[in-house]
Design a protein that fits this description.
Blueprint lengths: L2 H17 L4 H13 L3 H31 L10 E4 L3 H5 L2 E2 L3 E2 L6 H5 L9 E4 L4 H12 L5 E5 L1 H8 L3 E2 L2
Parallel strand pairs: 1-3, 1-4, 4-5
Antiparallel strand pairs: 2-6
Helix pairs in contact: 1-2, 2-3
Amino acid sequence: MNTSIAMTLAVLVGVALGLLGGGGSILTVPIFTLVLGIGTREARTHMRRLALTTLTVIAAITLTSCAGTSAPQNDVDPSAVIIDVRTPAEHASGHLDGALLLDVTAGELQAALPDLDPEAAYLIYCRSGNRAGAAIDVMKQAGFTDLRNLGSLEDAANATGLPIVQP
């Protein structure tokens, strides 16, 4: 049997047994010795190398996945008007710096449409992106074209790089 396949099989069995409370790390060395036909000392060396490689790969994946989430995208038009379509209470609990509050559920957005420039770019956010989507539909029907749903407040902060103003 191929050594790398046997080592992988032994580790998988050992991990499975360990997860099931069966002492996987205790049983992995005998599995290595039986499957590979090697001594206990050599089996322990193989296990250490495989464990170190596995931990390195896990660390690399973890660091790589974290790196993309914390940096702002900043791929938005800096002159765009930012609209918060949440309720005044939601806005007061935290909002993007400089955001215009136009509560879509109370009709404030619809009432403000005649005063807004239909040629301008608009970035719209709410709690989850649902109301922002509804606001975009209303604005499209009124002739606005440069509209972007930023999703939630946190997503909007990440997309724009703007700070969240806290009370």
